[in-house]
Amino acid sequence: MTDSKYFTTTKKGEIFELKAELNSDKKEKKKEAVKKVIASMTVGKDVSALFPDVVNCMQTDNLELKKLVYLYLMNYAKSQPDMAIMAVNTFVKDCEDPNPLIRALAVRTMGCIRVDKITEYLCEPLRKCLKDEDPYVRKTAAVCVAKLHDINAQLVEDQGFLDTLKDLISDSNPMVVANAVAALSEIAESHPSSNLLDLNPQSINKLLTALNECTEWGQIFILDCLANYTPKDDREAQSICERVTPRLSHANSAVVLSAVKVLMKFMEMLSKDLDYYGTLLKKLAPPLVTLLSAEPELQYVALRNINLIVQKRPEILKHEMKVFFVKYNDPIYVKLEKLDIMIRLASQANIAQVLAELKEYATEVDVDFVRKAVRAIGRCAIKVEQSAERCVSTLLDLIQTKVNYVVQEAIVVIKDIFRKYPNKYESVIATLCENLDSLDEPEARAAMIWIVGEYAERIDNADELLESFLEGFHDESTQVQLQLLTAIVKLFLKKPTETQELVQQVLSLATQDSDNPDLRDRGYIYWRLLSTDPVAAKEVVLAEKPLISEETDLIEPTLLDELICYIGTLASVYHKPPSAFVEGGRGVVHKSLPPRTASSESTESPEMAPAGAPPGEQLDVIPTQGDLLGDLLNLDLGPPVSGPPLATSSVQMGAVDLLGGGLDSLMGDEPEGIGAPNFVAPPAATVPANLGAPMGSGLSDLFDLTSGVGTLSGSYVAPKAVWLPAMKAKGLEISGTFTRQVGSISMDLQLTNKALQVMTDFAIQFNRNSFGLAPAAPLQVHAPLSPNQTVEISLPLNTVGSVMKMEPLNNLQVAVKNNIDVFYFSTLYPLHILFVEDGKMGES
């Protein structure tokens, strides 16, 4: 009879009976009783009352019985800590048992009993087991150290267990090495500041030797540890890659992905000119393809990882397009992922077979998959220019099927194709307009409205088409309403005489009858533009649009580099860094790829290069004055204005006050230009009074010492302006201003991290400038700058730097370095920071 019989009894008085059986003299009866206790515990019954009786059964030579008792002990020790101390003597005794299995069992159970009271009693047995003659006991003790560290880190450090673990990396047995590495990695993750895994070429060599003889999980531990090592040069990186490559043919997919992670990381350090680099690319493809023959769940994990690899190095799988073709019995999540990778690998060489495949997918029955397939055709047109015509004809064929959701997706992607290739495929607009009535999804309706508005001059009945959408304006989604408003304004600017009534109607609906602030604001802006300066309105609304990029869904480069370091983990499946889904951030270490050691050109000018860097050619990376959006300080250098300072500030753009006030005076005159009607001004929005500093006439106020009481202790401080936007500096945004207080000049900086990784190692340098401005101290950012964190720093300046006349005179070129890159920007400093406060001039 099987052990299932232990789970069937549910009679009263069972605990009392078990107590009697546990205290029986017969060994068999004891074993049966312990099995019944474990069965009751497994199904959720509370058998903690039998704790002392079960612990008494520990004193036995029977290995099976001892395992069962230890299992019970692990489960109930936390709820009965005082009773658990009774078991300590047995642990100590079992750790000296001649049988290595019992010694290992005792040390394993010790690590699983998470009770503070008894941890100190377990240090001596653990120390002996770490130096045990049997490797099975040593490898079990290595893992026990990590568990003990989790309970009481200070105790483990005081007892010297961490040093013993480090010694085990040199052990003769590969499994002991693997477990020691796993334990140290686990401890290092929870304490990132401690340098436990101090890897060097000698220890790396030992790990690589152990790698060939480990079990599969041991190999994963070692490969993950290797991935955290940064080789000193490309020769060492190549040597490690050569010894890791055989792991690619392992049967276990986790080992394969861990090996791929190591190789992807170390390839960064190899020059692309090396023969070995090409060989490595060829070797990486077959194991990745093999992963796709596993069951669907493993395929999905492999595909998510392949998606990252293809974004980083598409050349690895560029000849393997066919393995990503969808099979009829693939689950939907595998199909969608394969489709994504197909588009990433699409090129001029394989586009014909990709399009044939996608057209086939668009006739499937699965709606989500068909939608994605139609979008994929559009993405291929945008990515491979030579295939655009073929893609458009394929989409037209699909529109002719009259399948509602296919038609709607096709219209959405054709809009993107028009954006990418303007004035090339507009002949298809007539076909699109035929399907106007069948559109019921917001995205498709918005795309069609955009097409009608954009090409209104080519569509005879554009006003009728847009008017048909206007009938149910309030029932439309915000996306459609915004698009309709813009399209009708475009139509009016192209055909002003025919559409005055229509544009008045839509502006009224958007501004007066809508609760949506975005729609209302856009309506007001268009209304004021049209009512004051139709020529400017034409320039704004009908401005030439930038072409859309090929790949809009690529992962940001810094995030991609971090995710490559997490191949084979959850982060690579979610496509998010661990800090985004690990609560509390404990144990999360931000990783990045090693820098390329291959010869690369210097991007720094001689003056901007950090100390010790070789001087190279000066590159024009700092924007010229023409690129700056006017004088950031916006000082008014006109003549002084008599009378009291203004209490309010009016926001101006050219001669028009967009937020009301000045609008009324403009309404009387007929605007010149394109025969625009006399618009009724929309209700003027009120501007709150600026209660801060009163605005005078710029520099005349800066030196107006009579308005204050006594003497001026500090000069005017301009508000902080954004000097370096985040999109130009991989997520780092720098705002700042210049101040002069009591004879000292300083640059007040505000650093904001808008990236997904931590920023450290900040430094700053100025280029030579007209007045020799230079930092008087290093840039001090005392703690790492976490994502979404902002820090304010005041950098003292002096005027003892190198001098070179700049154009304009107060132009300052700055370089800021952090752990990600070096970034450059240019700004203008106000000349008054150079003037002394007392205003006296020297006699000479």
Automatic annotation (TrEMBL):
Pfam families: Adaptin_N (PF01602), Alpha_adaptinC2 (PF02883). One of its GO terms (cellular component) is membrane coat. Residues 716-826 form the Clathrin adaptor alpha/beta/gamma-adaptin appendage Ig-like subdomain domain. Gene3D superfamilies: 2.60.40.1150, Leucine-rich Repeat Variant. It is a peripheral membrane protein. SMART domains: Alpha_adaptinC2, ARM. One of its GO terms (biological process) is vesicle-mediated transport. This is AP complex subunit beta. It comes from Camelus dromedarius (Dromedary). It is found in: Endomembrane system. Its main location: membrane. Residues 586-619 are annotated as: Disordered. The lineage of its organism: Eukaryota, Metazoa, Chordata, Craniata, Vertebrata. PANTHER family: ADAPTOR COMPLEX SUBUNIT BETA FAMILY MEMBER (PTHR11134). The keyword Membrane applies. It comes from the Eukaryota.
